[in-house]
Write a structure and sequence with these properties.
The structure holds 2 protein chains of 2 kinds. By secondary structure, chain A is an alpha/beta fold. In chain A, 35% of the residues lie in helices and 18% in strands. Chain A has 12 helices and 14 strands. Chain B has one domain. Chain B contains 7 helices and 25 strands. At the A-B interface, helix 8, strand 7, helix 9 and helix 12 of A face helix 5, strand 19, strand 20, strand 21 and strand 25 of B.
Chain lengths: 355, 426
């Protein structure tokens, strides 16, 4: 092996339970985490599948009960082991339908991914409780419900693991074999959408099985807080997804799919005019917002209410982005940031305007 | 209603001294078309170009794409209420210049105009990389409002397509397809054992660059209503909108409505295509409630067993889509919805702005946020000045090597929600 190949050989760290680690069954489920060199158990099959592309340098073996009953301690011990090895890729399982093993695989993969930034992959049966818990957080290869599915699972996991480790483009879930629900990826079907829709409707009407192309997710619904006790004392802030920005859109907030939000000072501003403000939003007719941006961000009315003592005060900063085509995940990330600023600034209430 | 479509395969478009269709070639005298569109004093000038599949050509910012068609026999004319006078279309004989399209271009009205690449990776996402495009690049008169400008360009494109279609009134078609939409009683007698299937088409109606016209009527001012599916082949529905380019239904999409053609393809064998409902996507909540109530009510009155619902646009219209789906399902009628997704650039965000468990059969046109690099093209028709501000563009997305990085939502028709394309997502 020359030096270049050595450099390119990806280092893989593999996590398995006490059973696959050859220690024993349920009676050994309390086994403490240990790290061994090289590949063990199912790791041998992975090593064969990787060939010259990657090597399993270490294997961590941990009892399923120990992990489940000592979650934090187990996580920290294993994270320390991962830090020591600094692998290019972390693989756990596959866990098939073993519930505690599946939850352990999901939990440790999630920790390695979020805390250490190392790409992770696991595999399990769709009804494993770990699948439901972690399907929206990582790639999970869909496997059969028992170890008899090992021969099928390993090539799929090995192939996807190499792509993840190399940072290559990941195909759609049905192409790669991971569970839908984590990452939506485009690909080209054999038939056009309208034909697929007719086929799906015919199956649905006949009561035959069909597979929706987009399983409905759980929707994030937020319970409103109790009303403000005394609004005449409250500091009120304005936040909008209607794209109102100072004229010229100084921060270049996108017309659609915003990658950022703006924070603008309105101290001393009593009215948003055509000369001073406009909208960056590409999802509605901007004419009326551009003529009078108060229609979307009602600074004028709130200043009047402030003067009349109907509200305590109008906060001197507003936060804005374009909701148009912007990923919910991005919106949530913006809000986490500026909600902290609003709280820090002693704001009691926020009026959110949309379009 | 019986309509015969006669397709005349166009294999070349040539600008020259005479306008005619001969031997599969569409010859266009630009002077004639120019005179036609300059009848509208709001248009200062227009220039013409032809873009063919496989060329290193980018067309942007594109407003609409229209297929040249003509009424060769029977009542009415193309684009009734807009170009032809109001008269019921959808029967008789219609000639189509198959393979040709009129593409309208001009400085942007809003943010929603899009891109067509005739080759390279961008070409895979748009059906209009496969048509021979007569591109009309307009310059408006100074001082026009956005609304006046949008209307002038919309009508100019339709007039031009109608003019070109008329050149083929007496040309013998290469292919003939017959569509027969039966009355309720006829179809029930003829196909008593087949499930009655309807099509609910949602039409974008949110305002400037977000409007759709039916026989010239702005759809946001209409209650949910019914139309014969054959009428759409004669331009009864025209696009006045650009939403985001990827999920805007261009006039070409309406003229070639794939749900209509695919339902007709199974009609009489596996299903009875029993009706088509058109409804709007207005911005006010009361309008959304009223329109979806009417949609569900009409489905029930028509005795449908199942319907396909197609959406246009995203975000706000997701609420209309889910309302339609929920209310129709609540009537005991099966639904399949066609939508697209905004799952973020990495695909891990929530795809739709509204969801419901009733929507258990979904066809998706793909994730519009997916990012693609469009390489430099040798020729630009229109202008690349806007590729950073159109929906799907972003700051500094033009690279020094001439390539541009965009979300595919900037590409015309990329994630079409009438199921026009093969692209999907999982």
């Amino acid at each position: 092996m020359n030096s270049k190949e050595e450099r390119d050989l990806l280092k893989i760290l593999h996590y398995i339970n006490q059973f696959y680690g050859g220690i024993g069954g349920e009676e050994h489920a309390g086994h403490l985490p240990e790290m061994r060199e090289g590949a063990h158990g199912p790791g041998m099959a992975f090593a064969a599948a990787f060939g010259d592309a990657a090597t399993i340098t270490h294997t961590i073996v941990c009892g399923d009960s120990y992990f489940g009953e000592n979650l934090e301690a187990a996580k920290q011990t294993i994270l320390d082991m991962v830090r020591q090895v600094k692998p290019d890729m972390f693989i756990a399982g596959p866990a098939f339908n073993a519930g505690r093993y599946g939850v352990a695989c999901g939990t440790i993969c999630d920790a390695v991914k979020t805390e250490l930034g190392i790409p992770v992959l696991t595999g399990m049966y769709v009804e494993n409780p770990g699948a439901e818990m972690f399907v929206d957080k990582m790639h999970i290869i869909s496997t059969r419900d028992s170890g008899a599915g090992m021969r099928e699972a390993v090539p799929k996991m090995a192939k996807l693991a190499l792509k993840l480790a190399r940072g290559e483009k990941i195909g759609a879930s049905i192409e790669e074999g991971y569970m839908p629900g984590y990452m939506r990826v485009n690909f080209f079907e054999k038939e056009r959408g309208s034909k697929r829709a007719v086929d799906m409707l015919l199956a649905k009407m006949k009561g035959e099985p069909f597979v929706t192309e987009f399983p409905m997710p759980d929707f994030d619904r937020v319970e409103p807080l109790p009303p403000i006790a005394d609004i005449t004392k409250a500091r009120v802030a304005l936040v909008t997804s209607g794209g109102i920005v100072p004229k010229g859109n100084p921060d270049r907030i996108e017309a659609s799919s915003a990658s950022k939000y703006g924070e603008y000072d309105i101290a001393g501003v009593g009215d948003l005019t055509e000369a001073t403000y406009e909208t960056a939003h590409g999802g509605y007719d901007p004419t009326y917002a551009n003529v009078d941006a108060d229609r979307v961000l009602p600074v004028d009315v709130l200043r009047e209410m402030e003067t009349a003592g109907k509200i305590g005060s109008l906060h001197n900063k507003f936060y804005t982005t374009t909701g148009n085509g912007t990923a919910v995940k991005s919106s949530a990330a913006f809000a986490v940031e500026f909600a902290a600023k609003l709280k820090n600034d002693g704001v009691d209430a926020v009026i959110l305007t949309s379009t | 209603m019986k309509l015969t479509i006669g397709n005349i395969n166009i294999t070349d478009v040539v600008l020259g001294a005479e306008s005619k269709v001969e031997g599969g070639t569409l010859f266009v005298n630009p002077k004639e078309l120019e005179a036609l569109v300059l009848e509208d004093g709001n248009i200062a000038s227009v220039s013409f170009d032809v873009a063919k599949p496989g060329e290193s050509t980018r067309i942007t910012p594109v407003k609409d794409v229209i297929e040249p068609r003509t009424k060769a026999d029977g009542p009415g004319g193309m684009f009734p209420g807009v170009v032809a006078k109001v008269d019921t279309v959808g029967s008789g004989v219609t000639h189509v210049l198959k393979g040709a399209a009129v593409v309208t271009v001009g400085k942007i009205v809003g943010f929603q105009e899009g891109i067509i690449d005739m080759s390279g990776p961008g070409a895979d996402y748009t059906p209009f990389s496969g048509t021979i495009n007569l591109v009309m690049d307009f310059v408006p008169r100074d001082g026009l409002s956005a609304q006046e400008y949008e209307k002038s360009l919309r009508v100019a494109g339709l007039k031009a397509a109608s003019f070109l279609g008329d050149l083929a009134k007496n040309v013998k078609p290469d292919e003939v397809i017959e569509y027969d939409f039966l009355s309720a009683t006829e179809s029930m007698k003829k196909y008593p054992d087949l499930p009655r299937v309807g099509y609910v088409q949602m039409l974008q109606s949110q305002g400037l660059l977000h409007d759709t016209y039916v026989y010239g009527v702005d759809m946001k001012q209409s209650l949910t209503t019914m139309i014969s599916p054959t009428e759409v082949f004669d331009g009864a529905i025209v696009s006045g909108n650009c939403v985001s380019a990827c999920d805007k239904n261009t006039t070409y999409h309406h003229q070639n409505n794939p749900v209509v053609t695919d339902l007709f393809a199974r009609h009489g064998a596996e299903l009875n295509f029993a009706g088509m409902i058109i409804t709007n996507e207005n911005v006010y909540l009361a309008d959304k409630i009223r329109s979806s109530d009417w949609t569900a009510k009409l489905c029930e009155m028509m005795g449908f067993d199942g319907v396909i619902i197609s959406q246009e646009g995203f975000g706000n219209p997701d609420t209309d889509l889910i309302m339609n789906c929920k209310k129709i399902e609540a009537k005991g009628i099966h639904t399949v919805i066609i939508t697209d997704e905004y799952a973020g650039r990495d695909g891990t965000s929530q795809s739709l702005a509204d969801v419901d468990a009733a929507a258990n059969a979904v066809v998706t046109g793909g994730n519009a946020n997916e990012v693609v690099t469009l390489p430099k093209m040798d020729k630009i028709i229109g202008s690349q000045d806007y590729v950073d501000v159109i929906a799907g563009g972003f700051e500094n997305n033009m690279k020094s090597d001439g390539s541009i990085v965009v979300e595919i939502q900037a590409i015309i028709g990329a994630t079409n929600e009438m199921g026009f394309n093969k692209m999907s997502a999982r």
